[in-house]
Amino acid sequence: MINSDGMNAEGKLLYEGKAKRVFASGKPHILRVEFKNSLTAFNALKKGSFENKGHINRDIASLLFQELNKEGIASHWISNAGDVDMIVHEVKIIPLEVVVRNTLAGSTAKKLGIAEGNVLAKPLVEFYYKDDALADPFVSDDQILMMGIATETEIQELKLLAQKINQTLKRIFAVAEIDLIDFKVEFGKDHQGRILLADEITPDCCRLWDMKTQEKLDKDRFRRDLGNIKESYEEVLRRLKGKLS
Ligand code: TMP
Ligand code: ASP
After folding, report:
1. Does the residue 241 lie in any domain?
2. Lower CB count within 10 Å: N or C terminus of the chain?
3. Does 239 map to a domain?
């Protein structure tokens, strides 16, 4: 449904993902994103949910987007609305999952046969091609160019942004006594072609270990059936709120 201004009518569902739904806001180039209570892993082979997850993740993401903004990193975040929504700039997502690793864990540790927990001398930036049917495969810079996903200049810009985001997030989480092991971010282009940090930054797409105990406070608790998933997400929000307000 398009209204008289050629905009999608307010409240129209435009896209439904695994953890979020995107709605038209009724305003040009502005959307509303709703964080759902659902939780998936392994390309949605494993499904779950917990009460209040949408609210917790919306609050964590918005806190982090605002902190990053203070450091000059532009994101799609404009404001929060209600309990589980954020108002964002409309972007066309660049189909790359940009992963930054400070400590080896997860897929790269497994692929290279290196034990989890090895601290890297320098943060590693990796690109994965966002395609559920292909299960988000790793792609090299040359493969990105070959596919026409991004230009050489854009690849360099994404790497630089990823490193800068990592520096800021590492500092913020350290204040909350959390080690940022790795994370995934996505970027999009707004209607003027500007690259903005988009999607979300939450315990769904980060590995967060308690600095003292090394206890996992992220989605690995769900992936690996470690229990206390909700409590861990709440703990991350509680610590960030305590330190950032
Ligand atoms: P990985 O070790 O499975 O490659 O994941 C690295 C980090 O990126 C981890 O914090 C989880 C996050 N991630 C996602 O959020 N979604 C994804 O599709 C992938 C591949 C990683
Ligand atoms: N792409 C995976 C998913 O479907 C990532 C993960 O295991 O978290 O959720």
Report:
1. no
2. C
3. no
Shared-domain flag, residues 77 and 26: yes
The parent domain of residue 34 ranges over: 13-89
CB of 239 within 6 A of ligand 1: the answer is: no
Residue 81: Cβ within 10 Å count:
14
What does pTM read for this prediction? Answer: 0.95
Tell me: do 41 and 106 sit in the same domain: no
Centre of ligand 1 to C-alpha 101, Å, is 10
Under 8 Å between Cβ of 135 and 73: no
> Does the beta carbon of 89 lie inside 6 Å of ligand 1?
no
pLDDT tens for residues 178-190?
999 999 999 999 9
